[in-house]
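Tip: read the tokens left to right.
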């Protein structure tokens, strides 16, 4: 449902379009598949609007009016159910159930492997004082004039 809403966020959709039903019917569709459906419905609405405007302009010309004389509202102000119904005729699912199962198994494996580092602890040892400044471990220590060799000095 979130992908559909995102794909249509700037598009006027009729209130009677049941996005929940559309989401349930398209279960298993990829984000690209859902976006394609939304774009196709939008293009259908635009085409219909253009056709109606052309017909209105022809009618005006027959009546001797110019386009400036009339300020008609948009003939198709929103994407309707019939636009989505037509778009669904071309809908295709590009991800198979097998692909989804593979992804879910991979996601589960990835989630389990993320937990590996959260339980890491060094074994208990007696704290030994570090040798030299910055824990350099005796590899140059804190000798003056030797800053080129020690990154931590």
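Filled-in amino acids:
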């Amino acid at each position: 449902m979130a992908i559909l809403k995102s794909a249509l966020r700037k598009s006027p959709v009729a209130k009677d379009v049941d996005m929940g039903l559309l989401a349930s019917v398209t279960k298993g569709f990829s984000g690209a598949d859902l976006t394609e459906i939304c774009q196709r419905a939008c293009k259908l609405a635009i085409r219909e609007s253009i056709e109606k405007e052309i017909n209105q302009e022809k009618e005006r010309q027959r009546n001797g009016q110019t386009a400036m004389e009339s300020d008609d509202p948009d003939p198709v102000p929103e994407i309707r159910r019939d636009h989505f119904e037509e778009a669904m005729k071309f809908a295709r699912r590009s991800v198979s159930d097998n692909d989804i199962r593979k992804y879910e198994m991979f996601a589960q494996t990835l989630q389990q492997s993320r937990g590996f580092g959260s339980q890491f602890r060094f074994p208990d040892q007696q704290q030994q004082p570090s040798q030299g400044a910055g824990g350099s471990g005796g590899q140059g220590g804190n000798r003056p004039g030797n800053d080129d060799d020690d990154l931590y000095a």
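The radius of gyration is 32 Å. Confidence is low (pLDDT under 50) at residues 132-141.
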